[in-house]
């Protein structure tokens, strides 16, 4: 194959790839939202796709930080191993979220798939070089990092509540705000994680979590079409129970 033919073949592959990126469900939520369509090939040139099966590990606590990950579909759970062998789930990643730039040299927590998930991975060094070339990419990463820190702060406040019902109400509102990233349109919130995962995150027993779901349902604040779906019927009353002192619209303003 001649040089010109090889160049045309490579250009065709780039165009096809960029077309796929433009059609990605999280194109305007994830890291790539900072890049214009004509520049997407620069980001995709350093990207490697990663597919995970349910409960498959992406990285372990203590692993060296070498890549940045952007979740395009599915859900990841983040957790820390405790000295007594238990684990504390510190959070969940949703499509559009990223992982890998907060820690310095090693990862401070583990990450594994809750359900089948797809990610884009980027070498940190090459991302840093692109950030120098594209200030919009640097600014996007900084905004996403600030949003992640706000979410961590909100989670700390939620976990500091004494009443289990307060914790669950706050968890549902925060997850709903992150999942929808816009005012609700009557859609049910998908809970891909198990009740055990929710319990491990909130520091409760699975029996307590189940009772709290039942109580919120009996009070007419939520509907439970099935174990992995919840429809929030009264956000303002749920916010009162959570004791967050703000309206649900303000929660959405913290979602990147």
From TrEMBL:
<keyword id="KW-0238">DNA-binding</keyword>
<keyword id="KW-0805">Transcription regulation</keyword>
<dbReference type="InterPro" id="IPR036390">
    <property type="entry name" value="WH_DNA-bd_sf"/>
</dbReference>
<dbReference type="GO" id="GO:0005829">
    <property type="term" value="C:cytosol"/>
</dbReference>
<dbReference type="GO" id="GO:0003677">
    <property type="term" value="F:DNA binding"/>
</dbReference>
<dbReference type="InterPro" id="IPR012318">
    <property type="entry name" value="HTH_CRP"/>
</dbReference>
<dbReference type="Pfam" id="PF13545">
    <property type="entry name" value="HTH_Crp_2"/>
</dbReference>
<dbReference type="Pfam" id="PF00027">
    <property type="entry name" value="cNMP_binding"/>
</dbReference>
<feature type="domain" description="HTH crp-type">
    <location>
        <begin position="162"/>
        <end position="236"/>
    </location>
</feature>
<dbReference type="InterPro" id="IPR036388">
    <property type="entry name" value="WH-like_DNA-bd_sf"/>
</dbReference>
<dbReference type="InterPro" id="IPR000595">
    <property type="entry name" value="cNMP-bd_dom"/>
</dbReference>
<dbReference type="InterPro" id="IPR014710">
    <property type="entry name" value="RmlC-like_jellyroll"/>
</dbReference>
<feature type="domain" description="Cyclic nucleotide-binding">
    <location>
        <begin position="31"/>
        <end position="100"/>
    </location>
</feature>
<protein>
    <submittedName>
        <fullName>Crp/Fnr family transcriptional regulator</fullName>
    </submittedName>
</protein>
<keyword id="KW-0804">Transcription</keyword>
<dbReference type="InterPro" id="IPR018490">
    <property type="entry name" value="cNMP-bd_dom_sf"/>
</dbReference>
<dbReference type="InterPro" id="IPR050397">
    <property type="entry name" value="Env_Response_Regulators"/>
</dbReference>
<dbReference type="GO" id="GO:0003700">
    <property type="term" value="F:DNA-binding transcription factor activity"/>
</dbReference>
């Amino acid at each position: 194959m001649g040089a010109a033919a090889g160049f045309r073949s490579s250009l065709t592959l780039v165009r096809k790839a960029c077309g796929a990126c433009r059609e990605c469900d999280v194109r305007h939520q994830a890291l790539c939202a900072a890049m214009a369509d004509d520049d997407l090939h620069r980001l995709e040139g350093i990207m490697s796709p990663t597919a995970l099966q349910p409960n498959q590990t992406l990285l372990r606590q203590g692993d060296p930080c070498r890549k940045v990950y952007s979740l395009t579909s599915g859900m990841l759970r983040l957790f820390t191993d405790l000295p007594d062998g238990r684990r504390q789930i510190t959070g969940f990643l949703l499509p559009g979220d990223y992982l890998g730039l907060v820690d310095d040299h090693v990862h401070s927590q583990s990450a594994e798939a809750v359900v089948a998930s797809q990610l884009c991975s980027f070498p940190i060094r090459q991302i840093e070089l692109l950030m120098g070339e594209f200030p919009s990419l640097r600014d996007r990463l900084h905004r996403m990092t600030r949003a992640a820190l706000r979410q961590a702060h909100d989670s700390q406040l939620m976990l500091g509540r004494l009443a289990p019902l307060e914790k669950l109400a706050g968890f549902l509102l925060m997850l709903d705000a992150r999942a929808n990233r816009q005012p609700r349109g009557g859609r049910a919130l998908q809970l891909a994680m198990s009740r055990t995962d929710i319990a491990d995150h909130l520091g409760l027993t699975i029996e307590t979590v189940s009772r709290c779901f039942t109580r919120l349902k009996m009070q007419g604040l939520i509907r439970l079409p099935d174990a992995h779906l919840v429809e929030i019927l009264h956000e303002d009353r749920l916010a009162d129970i959570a004791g967050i002192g703000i309206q649900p619209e303000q929660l959405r303003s913290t979602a990147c």
